[in-house]
Structures are given as structure tokens and as C-alpha cells.
Amino acid sequence: METAEHIRALDEEGRLLTAAARKAGTDAEVPTCPSWRVRDLLRHTGAVHRWATAFVAEGHPSPRPLTDGPEELDGDALLTWFEDGHRRLLDALRAAPADLDCWTFLPAPSPLAFWARRQAHETTVHRVDAESALDHATGAPVMEPGMEPGMGAVEDHAVDPATDFAVNLTAEFAVDGIDELLLGFHARPRSQVRTGTPRVLRVRATDTDAVWTVRLSSEPPAAERADAAPPLDADCEIAGPASRLYLSLWNRLPFPAVTGDPALAGLWRETSGIG
Prior knowledge:
By secondary structure, the chain is an alpha+beta fold. 45% of the residues lie in helices and 10% in strands. The protein has 7 helices and 5 strands; from the N terminus they run αααααββββαβα. Helix 1 runs antiparallel to helix 3, helix 2 runs parallel beside helix 3 (75-95) and helix 5 (171-184) runs parallel beside helix 6. The chain is globular. Residues 172-265 form the MDMPI C-terminal domain.
């Protein structure tokens, strides 16, 4: 995907997050992030937006700490604070030069491409959290498949058609997000998805040609993407439409379909949180 496409996605997803949070209310529980309420979600995502904006707008060459959102703000004031930070991030990305030089933490064609992509996916995942809170607040059936990255996991539940948070995601965007997660985040030494003996997990998008082979061992996962199912046998395959796969790998939806050893799918649920 192009940087401009990521910025457009960030714009849309931030607006959707705001709308869902406003309708749910800041005291609403967030089923996809146990122990969080909407105010916590807004403070976290708004703080991440401001953190990212500083790198893009000020060109910081090294890591900077992520500070917490304002505890003193709530209700409409907190929503306004969130909207302001989202708008400033968009403005910074749109104004940034193509040769922007600043710190990043995942491989990317450029720092500008990295921050646009990372914030588009960050905001999308948390938009799903806000919509789960809205469904919960209005009494709609809500599945509780996953948790805020790093918090652990819960059991999968049946998906109610009215609670399909993936419905507005394109396959292209979802494949891009799976690339970032498997080839970026989980290629880092801090990934906790490990096995005592070598195993192979396959992730297959049924509505595209994208197939990821993830080799698991006592080392960080080694993933590669192909445009067709590789001949290598897999111990477990997780398959489904790209948009559903994307959110399930982020522990926001149940896995669409699992074949082979279900323990590997369970391992992902239990250890894949991004802290």
C-alpha cells in the first residue's frame, strides 16, 4: 500500500473510533480489552497519536517514552482531546517530506511510510475495540475473543453477524496489516511466540493469494509470505478472509478456521500480545 492510502485509512478509522466512543460513552466497558473502559482506550490511543506526531513533526532520531493520556479529562473533554491529537497526527503526516528522517522500530521503505502504516493499523485495531464497547453498551450480542495485546487471551466465542468488525476492511489493507504483524512485530527478539521443538504455522487468506508460513522454534518466529500455498507441510493452518484473519491475529476476533494441531492456534492466542 502507498503512504497516502495509509493516511486515508488512518483518517477514516480515527473518525469511526471517535463516533463509536461517543455513542458508547466513556464509562462503557471494552469487551475486547478486559479491564479497560472507553476512557482508557481514548487515553491510550490519543497518547500514541501524540507520541507518533512528535517523531514525524520534530524528526527525533532516537526513541522517546510514551506518556499516559490525561487522567483529569473525561467525557466530551476527553473526546475533544482525542480528536485534536488525531487531527494533528494527520496534519503532520500530510506535511512531512518524503525524505523524513526520524526513529522507527520496524522495517519500512521510509520513516514516513513506517509511521503512516503503523498508525493506520494501530487506530484500526482500537476502532474495533471502541465498536465492541458500543455493542456492549447497547446490549447487542458481543463476542469476547481477545484482549489488548500483552494482556493474555480468552476463549473464542461464536461470531454474531451483527458484530462483524471486519466488514469495512479491504483485503489489501488486511493483508498489509498481517504483513506488519508477522514479518515485522513478531520477527523481533521480544516476540514470545516460541515452541520447544520446531513447528510450522500457516496463515492463509482465502479471498486473496496471500499465504504466510511461520516457522516456530525457541527463537523468534521466522515468517515469509508467498502468493500461493507452499508445498511445505504445516502443523497447523489458520485460514479465512483476510479481514477476519487480520483481526483474529490481533486477538480481536475468533480464528475463522483452524486445521491441524489446535495447540498452535492456542499458543498464538496466549503468547502473541504486543507489549
